[in-house]
Every structure is written in structure tokens, then in C-alpha cells.
Design a protein that fits this description.
Layout (H helix, E strand, L loop, with lengths): L2 E5 L4 H12 L3 E6 L10 H5 L7 E4 L5 H11 L3 E4 L6 H6 L1 H22 L4 E7 L22 H20 L3 E6 L2 E2 L8 H13 L6 E3 L5 E2 L2 E2 H12 L6 E4 L5 E2 H11 L8 E3 L17 H7 L7 H20 L1
Parallel strand pairs: 1-2, 1-4, 2-3, 4-5, 5-6, 6-11, 7-10, 8-13
Antiparallel strand pairs: 9-12
Bound molecules: NADPH dihydro-nicotinamide-adenine-dinucleotide phosphate and guanosine-5'-diphosphate.
NADPH dihydro-nicotinamide-adenine-dinucleotide phosphate binds next to α1 and β5.
Length: 326
């Protein structure tokens, strides 16, 4: 039975990846940072019904000694580094924390693997935010980067360190440049989930409006469940490499509102207003990925349409609010 270690296992992707690997017969271990609010720990893993099937180890990505001990104990065959301060907007308020966790944290993990389990295969969660102010209309693995936030700059550092460890130490280290991916388990502060949660509240009479920022921004949105399969596929290759993972379709926030409100039979224009509070100091106006390499080499392609994903998210948020009302 292969053994996987996932940092960020309590996040959206970590939960879906844990479920995916368990279905493949892996022993799944995860890094868990301690919280005073113990009752919400593992909520996403619980939602997917896998909380009691994973082994959680207390530790923080910034605590190298803990990471070293955990890698020593788990002896993983595959390491997925998904932990990060992942919210772009917050990265301007916490640039140093973001640099430490999202940037240096990846190097802690690379160091731990190099020192303790050098044969383990390593996955780094890179991001389409690294393309930022886009240099090509459709972004692929050869498109130059232009990060537009402390988050994106930190991810870029972690990305190049992954490439560097691969080239310097012959590590099987791969980096997935994933475009935005969402699900019912997406953090509530991200725009898609904020919208589907808003739709549910408005539909159930719990709210009358939803306040957003820049409605013109465009993103290439896929489903997290499809994207974790690509992470795994990268680590099954003989040769480590970097891959763009995207759907190849870009849609504005405005369009996503129309889809999500429309699913609930609501007119988004009657409920959405904008506020400067949700605008960013620098914006990534548009992202559109070319996942041709992943399709050719990994045989990967997305299975879920944006419409189906939005419907799934709205239904999940309706169910959550209905359950809370009871
Ligand atoms: P989430 O924000 O849902 O999850 C982040 C995870 O990192 C959580 O488990 C969180 O723990 C953990 N974490 C944060 N700080 C630390 C720390 N100091 N030590 C240990 N763990 C920590 O992100 P996603 O699941 O959406 O994304 C997974 C990865 O992929 C992230 O690195 C993200 O930046 C990247 N990415 C995501 C994209 C997306 O669209 N979702 C696109 C491209 C890249 P806790 O539960 O305790 O908060
Ligand atoms: P990101 O691409 O990782 O930054 O993911 P987000 O979901 O946080 O943001 C996607 C886009 O939606 C960005 O261009 C934001 O500026 C835009 N956006 C517009 N309104 C909002 C909002 O209220 N919250 C968030 N998070 N983003 C918003």
C-alpha cells in the first residue's frame, strides 16, 4: 500500500485529494495545525466522509523540526504540499506571513523530503496567479510570469525552488500550475463560494443582497475534484515536470453570478451590489489556461462543466442553510 503525506489536508484540495488517494488504496497521512476551535477541525474531511480514514499529525509548515519528525515517522512515497495562506486578498494585509507560509513553507517541505525521504515524489501546489498580468492570451508552461500580489510572488518563489530542487538534487519534484478550482468545499471568502452562499441565503430569505468587488475580472474555473486527479497523475510519471491544469474557458464574475443566481431562479442584478471594500490594490484581470500538455502527457481533462459545478455549489449551500435553520 503506497503512503501519501498531504500538507493542507484540511483545506479544499487536501480533502478531495485524501478521498481520491484513499479510493486508490493509499495510506493517507496529513499535517494538521492545532486550533483552539477543535470542533471545526477536519470539517471538510468529515463532509466527504473520510475524516476517520486519514492519520493526522500535529504540525505547522513553518516549524521545520515538526515537519522533519513527521516525514521521518510517515516515510511517505508521495508528498503533496498544498498548505498555504491561499487567499490573495489577505496577502496584502499579511505579506510576511504569506511569504513565510506560502513561500518558505514549501522550502521547509522540500528540505524535509531531501534530507529524510529523498526517494519520495513531491508535488508543489503552484498557481495561475503567478501569470498575474498576463503576458500571453492563453497561458501555458512556457508563458512568462508576472505576479500581481504578495501571494503570487510567494507562490512563484516556491515554484522556482521546486524546479531548483528537481534540477539540483535529482528529486522527483513536480509543480502543478493550477488555475482556479472550486467546489462546495471552497473557502467562503473566495468569490464563487461567496456567491453561491449568497444565492442560498437570498433564496431562503436570510439576506436580500450580496456585496462583491470587481465584477469584470475573468477566471478559468474548474472543479477541485477533477484537479486533484491531475496532481496524482503528475507523480505517476517517470520524469518529474510542470503542468498547467485548466479548463480553457474563461468567464467573468458577472457571468458566474448570472449562472449561480439563475440556478435558483433569481435575477442576480436585483441582488448584487459592489463595494470598494472588496477591490484589490492590484488586480489579475483575466486568466485563461492551456492544459494541452497535461492532456497529452497525463491524459487529463476536466470532467465537470462550470454550470454543473455552480449548481452543485448552490445546492450544497442551500442544504447547509436549511440544516442550520432546523
Ligand atoms: P485552502 O485555503 O482551502 O487550504 C489551505 C490549507 O493550508 C489548509 O489545510 C490550512 O490549514 C493549511 N495551512 C495554512 N497555513 C498553514 C501552516 N502554517 N501550517 C500548516 N498548514 C497550513 O486552499 P485550497 O485547498 O484551495 O488550495 C490548496 C493549495 O493549492 C494552496 O497552496 C493554494 O494556494 C493552491 N492553489 C489553489 C487554487 C484554487 O483555486 N483552489 C489554485 C492554485 C493553487 P487550516 O485548515 O488549519 O486553515
Ligand atoms: P483568486 O483568483 O485566487 O484571487 O480567487 P478569488 O475567488 O478570491 O477572486 C477571483 C476574482 O474575483 C478576483 O479578480 C477578485 O477581485 C474578484 N472578486 C470580485 N468580488 C469579489 C469578492 O467579493 N470576493 C473575492 N474573493 N473576490 C472577488
Amino acid at each position: 500500500m503506497p503512503t501519501a503525506l498531504i500538507t493542507g489536508i484540511t483545506g479544499q484540495d487536501g480533502a478531495y485529494l485524501a478521498q481520491f488517494l484513499l479510493e486508490k488504496g493509499y495510506a493517507v497521512h496529513g499535517l494538521l495545525r492545532r486550533s483552539a476551535s477543535a470542533e471545526v477541525i477536519g470539517e471538510r474531511l468529515r463532509w466527504l466522509g473520510v475524516l476517520d480514514r486519514v492519520v493526522l499529525h500535529d504540525g505547522d509548515l513553518m516549524d521545520l523540526s515538526a515537519i522533519l519528525r513527521i516525514v521521518e515517522k510517515v516515510q511517505p512515497d508521495e508528498v503533496y504540499n498544498l498548505a498555504a495562506q491561499s487567499f490573495v486578498h489577505a496577502s496584502w494585509q499579511q505579506p510576511l506571513l504569506t511569504g513565510s507560509v506560502t513561500g518558505l513553507g514549501a522550502v521547509n517541505m522540500l528540505e524535509a523530503v531531501r534530507l529524510i525521504a529523498p526517494k519520495a515524489r513531491f508535488y508543489q501546489a503552484s498557481s495561475s496567479e503567478m501569470f498575474g498580468k498576463i503576458q500571453e492570451q492563453k497561458q501555458n508552461e512556457r508563458t512568462p510570469f508576472y505576479p500581481r500580489s504578495p501571494y503570487a510572488a510567494a507562490k512563484l518563489y516556491a515554484h522556482w525552488m521546486t524546479v531548483n530542487y528537481r534540477e539540483s538534487f535529482a528529486m522527483h519534484a513536480s509543480s502543478g500550475i493550477l488555475f482556479n478550482h472550486e467546489s462546495p468545499l471552497r473557502g467562503i471568502e473566495f468569490v464563487t463560494r461567496k456567491i453561491t452562499d449568497g444565492v442560498a441565503r437570498i433564496k431562503l430569505g436570510l439576506a436580500s443582497e450580496l456585496v462583491l468587488g470587481n465584477l469584470a475580472a475573468q477566471r478559468d474555473w474548474g472543479h477541485a475534484r477533477d484537479y486533484v486527479a491531475a496532481m496524482w497523475a503528475m507523480l505517476q510519471q517517470d520524469v518529474p515536470d510542470d503542468y498547467v491544469i485548466a479548463t480553457g474557458r474563461t468567464v467573468s464574475i458577472r457571468d458566474f453570478c448570472a449562472i449561480a443566481f439563475g440556478h435558483a431562479g433569481l435575477d442576480w442584478q436585483a441582488h448584487v451590489r459592489t463595494s470598494a471594500a472588496f477591490m484589490r490594490p492590484a488586480e489579475v484581470d483575466i486568466l485563461l489556461g492551456d492544459a494541452g500538455k497535461a492532456r497529452r502527457k497525463l491524459g487529463w481533462q476536466p470532467a465537470t462543466t462550470l454550470e454543473a459545478m455552480a449548481a452543485e455549489m448552490v445546492e450544497a449551500d442551500l442544504a447547509r442553510h436549511r440544516a442550520a435553520q432546523r
